[in-house]
Give the backbone structure.
Amino acid sequence: MTVGWRDVLLLIVGALFVWPRIQALQIPPVPEPAALTEDRVEEIDILLAADAPVRRLGSGPVVLLEASDYQCPYCRVYARKSFPVFRAMAERGELEYLALHTSIEAIHPDAMGRAVAVECAEDFWAEHVPAFDGWRDHWWQVGPLAPSLASCAGAEAHVRSAQALAESLDVTGTPTFFAGYVQPDGSWRFTLRFTGAASADSITKQVI
């Protein structure tokens, strides 16, 4: 088959048209989170029941609760840079880690859908961090291979309950964190509240 100049021109024009759209789909780099400053830390006294609609990871005397939104860019920074540190600590038995769905639908219309899909995944914690990227590289793990949303009848109810809890805790921005201690009956008493995508090191100095 002979390739003429018109074919070559069409290929060039097509490449120029498609390439910017391919670049737009790439996940942007994740900046380093800032240190947690004292003005972002608030002393509180909140008791949360053990049957609260949260996801749990690990166990330990100290508890850290993350209230986040899967479309929040600051939550993505925290999830990529700081969360792995706390996940490792939870798996070593140094703390109990809790995740609370806090979808701010007014500005992030897809966040609730991502939260429901993560709840439907076979392994919540395996999909928790990729969900902040919108699954551009991970959609096949939580899409066709996960149970259909219709078969996850309790997923949306769980997310809605979590949302109601976040509102009762007066979470108006994400990420917001609550730190405290695990009680003998399995409930949690939170003594600190702070906001923003802080570095793991600065959070640890406040929590541990």
Remarks:
- The longest strand covers residues 41-48.
- Confidence is low (pLDDT under 50) at residues 7-25, 136-148.
- Residues 5-24 form the longest helix (20 residues).
- The CA atoms of residues 118 and 127 lie 6 Å apart.
